[in-house]
Specification:
Elements (H helix, E strand, L loop, with lengths): L4 H15 L10 H14 L10 H24 L4 H12 L6 H7 L4 H26 L6 H32 L6 H4 L1 H30 L1 H25 L5 H9 L3 H11 L2 H33 L1
Helix pairs in contact: 1-9, 1-13, 2-7, 2-9, 3-4, 3-6, 3-10, 4-10, 4-12, 4-13, 5-6, 6-7, 6-11, 9-10, 9-13, 10-11, 10-13, 12-13
Length: 305
């Protein structure tokens, strides 16, 4: 697939999602699409390279810190509006997206680095989430409720990360040549990613259409702007804390978020407005991914001249 088409494909996915909100009914396909992407990625990974680096721990701290800082900073400019503050928290707190390693591969970066960051950030958020939910949402909650929240994140991690790793290792042991599958099937993997973006966009469109009339355009734009600012900070700080030869990977690890988990928790424990924080983040981080793909294409073109 031509690198010219890839950024356009992402744009088309967003357009499709906005005009066809009924596509949200296909939401059940997302775990399968992510699982396939990770399986294809893990087939070609050298697990010996999955070692934490200094920047990984900086990313974990920032992952938690940016969400909490966003909560307080928004409170300075919108005092008394707890829902907008919570929207900032949920947008910033999301761990690394399960699709991030595959995207790193599309960008010709080290997927192993992103996988390590994915595991660490997800574990950190899973451990911190019960306490943060209790503090931010002003509810004590039962221990059983918080254990259920932790179990939900753990289940997501197990199905979307651990299972693809195990299947990939088994497949490589039985069919050694399968390690080349990920490289040969990049177009198929990319199609799976675009399909996932389209479904997420459909879900976001449906959510905005259903809640937008109640919230008002001004409120929607405010949450969208806050989410955009958090996205820019994440990608920027991620680049800054990464080692010299791993800055793009660190940027991707901190910037591309697993918004699905945070949308789910926001929907369960907070008001609809809160879920719009990570919902808008879907638009921003995938838009930046499309720009990166276009920039990667331009770098290839320049190198051939």
């Amino acid at each position: 697939m031509s690198s010219v088409i890839r950024p356009l494909a992402i744009l088309c996915a967003f357009v499709f999602g906005w005009f066809v909100p009924q596509g949200a009914a296909l939401n059940f396909l997302i775990p399968w699409l992510v699982g396939f992407m990770l399986f294809a990625t893990f087939l070609g990974l050298d697990l010996r390279k999955l070692t934490p680096k200094r920047s990984h721990f900086a990313i974990v701290v920032l992952n938690l810190g940016i969400g909490i800082a966003g909560y307080f900073l928004v409170g300075l400019f919108a005092p008394g509006n707890d829902q907008i503050k919570q929207a900032a928290l949920f947008a910033g707190l999301a761990p690394t997206a399960t699709a991030a390693p595959a995207v790193a591969g599309f960008l010709k970066r080290q997927a192993e680095y992103v996988v390590t960051g994915l595991v660490l950030s997800t574990a950190a958020v899973a451990l911190a989430l019960p306490a943060l939910l209790s503090w931010v949402l002003h509810r004590e909650g039962s221990s059983a409720e918080f254990l259920a929240a932790f179990a939900s994140v753990a289940k997501s991690v197990g199905l979307t990360i651990v299972l693809p790793i195990l299947l990939a290792r088994i497949c490589r042991a039985i069919f050694p040549k399968s390690r080349d599958f990920g490289r040969r099937a990049k177009n198929v993997t990319f199609a799976a990613w675009v399909s996932m973006i389209a479904i997420i966009a459909c879900r976001a469109s449906k959510f905005i259409r259903e809640s937008g009339s109640e919230l008002g355009l001004g409120t929607l734009m405010e949450v969208a702007a806050i989410s955009l600012a958090i996205c820019m900070i994440n990608f920027g700080l991620g680049y800054c804390v990464g080692e010299k030869n791993l800055r793009p990977e660190a940027s991707q690890t901190l910037g591309q978020k697993n918004t699905g988990i945070m949308i789910a928790f926001a929907s369960m424990y907070a008001e609809p407005l809160v879920a719009l924080g990570p919902t808008f983040y879907v638009l921003w981080h995938n838009s930046w991914n499309a720009i990166q793909l276009a920039l990667t294409r331009d770098e290839k073109t320049d190198s051939k001249r």
